[in-house]
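Researcher: Next sequence.
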Amino acid sequence: MQIENSQIEKPESLNKLLLISFIAAVKVLALVHARDGDGRHVNTVFNKNEIIVLKLLDKKLQGKTEKQKNKFKSETLGWASWVIARIGGWKGYKSASKPGPITIYRGLEIFYNYVEGWKLTNG
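Model: Next structure:
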């Protein structure tokens, strides 16, 4: 989040930025933890509209081979972690290292752009 590069001078505004950064960090850590398969429902991290976009992206990101399919049960955190990691640049192969926090963070940044686009077209 590069808080140290922020040019915010008001303490109240800096506190808001810190809170937003903390929320983002918790999401990233939850998804990194879920990459091995977390059965918790996806709504512990994402709202209804975000889940719709995750479903659409999951269909788009599935590869043609079994190795490139999302192996996790739909609407679990493990499933969402797979989708976000793929958006963040992870290839999805078992031979590749597991997606880390930077890949997940990149994926979330891109994901929220998709969510904004979906909201613009679907209200």
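Model: The mean pLDDT is 88. Residues 5 and 14 are 12 Å apart (CA to CA).
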